[in-house]
Design a protein that fits this description.
WD repeat, cytoskeleton, chromatin regulator, alpha+beta, 5-stranded antiparallel beta sheet, 7-stranded mixed beta sheet
C-alpha cells in the first residue's frame, strides 16, 4: 500500500502539472487503499478533477464531506463498499461504477440515485429515468402516506418547546417508518431510509413555515402597470372580430378546426419501431432580385401585393446576391450591467429555400412554417457551442438545413401531421460493453396530433414517439441544464414536464411524467431562467404572461397552477377594441433581461426578471408589474404570433414583421431612464425582404415572418415565413 501524498497525486494525475488544482484525471486503482489512506485535506485541493479511478482497492466507505465540484466520473468497482451515503457530497457526479462490491444491495443503488442529483450512468447503464422516478414520483407517494400518518395520530404541541418537539419527532419518525409501506420488499431498507428523511422534512415545514417574502426593492414603473385582474383575451380567432388576417396567414387554432385531432392515448413506455429519415428531395431555391436601399423605419399602412400562385422556380441552387444593410446610429448610452460590448453586425441574405412543400411541389406558397432552432454542439463537458445546422418545421415535415450550403441534410415527413414546434437537446447514449456513455444531440418535434417525435439526426433515425396530450402541441422546450427534461405545452391549456431519459445502443428509451402545470389559456412560448432553469418557468399565453414554480421534490405538488401573472404598462390602454394580453414573443437576452412582445402593441419590452420576481404579488389577482427597462420600436401590425428571438452571445433581439422584414436590435447599451422618457429605442437595422424572383414570373412579395433563430455567435440568422420559405442570412465579415 502506497501512502497518498502530493507527489503521488501529481505522478498519477493528468495532465502533467506541478499543481493539484490543475489535475483533471486521477488513477489510484489497485493500490490496496482504505478509508484512512485518503487524506481529505489534500484531496480537497483537486478542484478541477473530473475523472477518478479508485477501483480495485479496499474501501468500505468514501471520505465524508470530501467536496470535488468538478468530479463527473467515479469508478469504485471491486472494493468493499458498505455505506453509500458518504458519497452525498459529490453532487455533480454524473457517472458512477460500483460493480463487484459484495455488500451493495438494491436499496443502496436506490439511495445513490436519490443522493446524487445529477447521476445518469450507473454501472454502465443509463438510469436517469429510474433515478428521477425515485426522486420525484416515488418520493411523492411516500410523502402522501407520511402526511396521512401525521393527520391520523399526531399534532403539534402548544406551545412548542424544544424538549417536547424532540420527543414528538422521534415518535413520529418511528411510527412513519413502521406504518408507511410502499414498493417491493427488496427495497424496504431504502423506503424506511427515505421515509425517515421525508418525515423530518415534513415536521420541520410545520414548525418553520415559509414566510411570504417582502419586497424591499422599489421600482420606477409600478405606477405605469395595472395590478388588478386583467381582461382575458378571447381564445379563438373565429369569435374575435378584431384579428384581421390575410388569406395566406392562418392561426394554429384555424388548423385545429380544419382537421380534428384524434385523441387515442398511447403508453409512453412502449417503444415504437425506429424509422429511417428520408433524404431530402429536390430543394427549390429562389433567386433574389437585388433591391435598392430600403427606408430606415417602416411605415404603417403599406399594403401587400397578392403573390402569384404559379411560378417557374430556379432549381440550380444559385445563391442570393449580396444586399447592402442599413446602418443606424443608436447613439452612446450608459451601459447597463450584464450587457456586452460587441459591435453591430452586418448580415446579408444567402439562401431562400422551399423545403416543406406539399408533395415537393415548387408551386406551394401556402404551407406555414412555425419553428426553427440551431443544433447545439455538445462536448465532453456537456457545454454547447454554435452550429451551422438549423432545424425547421412546418406542414407535415421537419428539415435539418446546412446554413452555409443551403442544402437540406435530413428531412422527416409524417403524413397527416402538422408540426408546430421543435427543440434540440443533448442526452446520454449508452454504448454497452463497459464503454463510457457519449453525448448525442436529439431533436423533439410535435404538433397537431399531440405526439412528440424523438429523432437522432446524426444517425438518420427517428427512434420513438410518445403521446404528450390528447390535443395539439403548441410549444416544446428542453431544460438546458438537464437535457432529458422536456416541457410540452398544448391546446388543452396544460404544460407537462417529461423525463425522456437517455437511449441505449438499440434506441430503447422510457418516458416519465414529472409535473403538470395548468394554464388559463394556450401556452405559446416557454422560457426557463438561464441561471435557475429548474426553479421557475415563464410561459407566454393567449391571455398573458404567467410564472410557475417548477422545483421538483421536497414538499412540492406534482400538479400546480400559476404562481403569478406578470403585467405590462400597455394593459392600461386596453378598451373594448384593444386587448393587449396575448404575449406572442418571449426570450431571455441575458441572465436577467427578458424581451417580450404583446399582440397589437407596436413595441417590444425589455424587462428585468430578477427585479420583477422580487416583488410581492397582489393578494387577489396574483399579479406583479414587469420592471420595464426599455421599449423597442417595432412594426404596427394586426398579424398575431410573429415570434421574436434573442442571441445572448451577441446581445441581439430580432423579430420579423408581416412584410418580410427583420427588425434587429443590438442591445449593448440601455439608457436607464429610456422607458420613463416615453421614447422607444429605434432598431439598429431593419433587414428588408430580399425580394426573391421566381423564374419567369417576377418577384415574391414579403410574407409574414412567423419565427426567427440565430446561432450563438450570430454567424447565421434564419427566418421562417407563412409562404413556405426559409430565408437564411449570413454574417458579413468586415474587411
Amino acid at each position: 500500500m502506497e501512502k497518498i501524498t502530493e507527489k503521488v497525486l501529481l505522478e498519477k494525475g493528468s495532465p502533467k502539472t506541478n499543481k493539484l488544482e490543475q489535475i483533471k484525471t486521477l488513477n489510484l486503482s489497485k493500490l490496496g487503499l482504505k478509508l484512512q489512506d485518503l487524506p481529505v485535506g489534500l484531496l480537497s485541493c483537486l478542484r478541477s478533477l473530473e475523472r477518478w479511478d479508485l477501483s480495485g482497492n479496499l474501501l468500505q466507505e468514501f471520505p465524508k464531506n470530501l467536496e470535488l465540484p468538478a468530479l463527473r466520473h467515479l469508478d469504485l468497482s471491486d472494493n468493499q463498499m458498505e455505506d453509500v451515503t458518504t458519497l452525498e457530497s459529490l453532487s455533480g457526479l454524473e457517472e458512477l461504477k460500483m460493480e463487484d462490491n459484495l455488500y451493495i444491495t438494491v436499496s443502496d443503488n436506490y439511495k445513490l440515485m436519490v443522493l446524487l442529483p445529477n447521476l445518469r450512468m450507473y454501472n454502465g447503464k443509463d438510469v436517469s429515468t429510474t433515478a428521477n422516478h425515485l426522486r420525484y414520483v416515488y418520493s411523492e407517494n411516500l410523502r402522501t402516506r407520511i402526511v396521512a400518518v401525521w393527520e391520523k395520530t399526531f399534532k403539534l404541541p402548544d406551545p412548542i418547546k424544544a424538549k417536547e418537539l424532540s420527543a414528538l419527532e422521534t415518535s413520529f419518525v418511528n411510527t412513519a417508518r413502521q406504518q408507511v409501506k410502499f414498493g417491493p420488499s427488496s427495497v424496504t431498507d431504502f423506503t424506511k431510509w427515505k421515509v425517515e428523511i421525508l418525515a423530518k422534512e415534513f415536521l420541520r415545514s410545520l414548525v418553520e413555515p415559509k414566510a411570504e417574502p417582502e419586497s424591499n426593492e422599489t421600482t420606477d414603473t409600478k405606477d405605469d402597470c395595472e395590478t388588478s385582474t386583467p381582461t382575458k383575451r378571447k381564445k379563438t380567432a373565429e369569435t374575435d372580430t378584431r384579428v384581421n388576417l390575410t388569406p395566406r396567414k392562418r392561426l394554429c387554432t384555424d388548423l385545429l378546426r380544419d382537421t380534428p385531432v384524434e385523441g387515442s392515448p398511447r403508453k409512453s413506455s412502449l417503444r415504437p419501431k425506429s424509422k429511417t429519415l428520408t433524404q431530402a428531395g429536390p430543394v427549390v431555391e429562389i433567386s433574389p432580385r437585388k433591391s435598392g436601399r430600403p427606408p430606415s423605419t417602416p411605415t404603417r399602412g403599406q399594403t401587400r401585393a397578392e403573390t402569384p400562385r404559379r411560378a417557374s422556380i430556379r432549381e440550380d441552387g444559385a445563391s442570393i446576391k449580396r444586399e447592402e444593410n442599413l446602418n443606424r446610429d443608436t447613439g452612446s448610452l450608459p451601459t447597463v450591467k450584464g450587457l456586452g460590448k460587441t459591435q453591430p453586425l452586418r448580415l446579408k441574405p444567402l439562401h431562400v429555400l422551399q423545403c416543406h412543400s406539399k408533395q415537393d411541389s415548387s408551386e406551394d406558397f401556402s404551407t406555414q412554417l412555425w419553428a426553427c432552432a440551431f443544433q447545439p454542439l455538445p462536448d465532453s463537458t456537456g457545454a454547447s457551442g454554435g452550429s451551422r445546422l438549423v432545424a425547421t418545421c412546418g406542414g407535415d415535415s421537419l428539415c435539418v438545413i446546412d446554413c452555409e450550403t443551403g442544402m437540406v441534410m435530413k428531412k422527416y415527413k409524417v403524413p397527416g401531421e402538422e408540426f408546430f414546434s421543435l427543440a434540440w437537446s443533448t442526452v446520454l447514449m449508452s454504448r454497452g460493453g463497459g464503454a463510457s456513455a457519449q453525448h448525442c444531440s436529439i431533436l423533439a418535434a410535435g404538433g397537431k396530433r399531440g405526439l412528440v417525435k424523438l429523432i437522432h439526426p446524426r444517425n438518420n433515425v427517428a427512434y420513438g414517439e410518445f403521446r404528450a396530450s390528447r390535443k395539439s402541441l403548441s410549444v416544446l422546450r428542453f431544460n438546458h441544464r438537464q437535457g432529458n427534461f422536456l416541457f410540452t405545452g398544448s391546446y388543452d391549456n396544460k404544460i407537462v414536464l417529461w423525463d425522456i431519459g437517455g437511449v441505449d445502443s438499440q434506441y430503447n428509451f422510457k418516458v416519465v411524467q414529472l409535473l403538470l402545470l395548468e394554464t388559463s389559456a394556450t401556452p405559446l412560448h416557454i422560457c426557463l431562467p438561464p441561471t435557475s432553469p429548474g426553479g421557475h418557468l415563464l410561459t407566454a399565453c393567449d391571455d398573458g404572461l404567467h410564472c410557475f414554480h417548477t422545483q421538483l421534490g421536497a414538499n412540492n405538488a406534482a400538479k400546480r397552477s400559476s404562481e403569478m401573472e406578470i403585467t405590462f404598462p400597455i394593459y392600461k390602454k386596453e378598451d373594448k377594441d384593444h386587448d393587449y394580453h396575448t404575449v406572442d414573443g418571449l426570450s431571455f437576452l441575458n441572465d436577467d433581461i427578458v424581451a417580450s412582445k404583446n399582440y397589437l402593441h407596436g413595441s417590444i419590452y425589455l424587462w428585468s426578471w430578477s427585479r420583477t420576481k422580487a416583488q410581492r404579488p397582489d393578494k387577489k389577482s396574483r399579479t406583479v408589474c414587469a420592471v420595464v427597462l426599455a421599449e423597442l420600436q417595432w412594426a404596427n401590425t394586426e398579424i398575431p404570433y410573429l415570434a421574436l428571438n434573442t442571441c445572448p452571445g451577441q446581445v441581439y433581439v430580432v423579430c420579423g414583421d408581416d412584410k418580410g422584414r427583420l427588425w434587429t436590435y443590438h442591445i449593448t447599451d440601455l439608457q436607464r431612464n429610456s422607458f420613463q422618457s416615453g421614447k422607444p429605442i429605434l432598431p439598429t437595422e431593419v433587414l428588408e425582404w430580399p425580394t426573391p424572383e421566381r423564374k419567369g414570373l417576377g418577384q415574391v412579395e414579403g410574407p409574414s415572418i412567423n419565427s426567427v433563430a440565430m446561432d450563438p455567435e450570430l454567424h447565421y440568422l434564419v427566418a421562417l415565413s407563412d409562404k413556405n420559405m426559409v430565408i437564411v442570412w449570413k454574417r458579413e465579415e468586415c474587411s
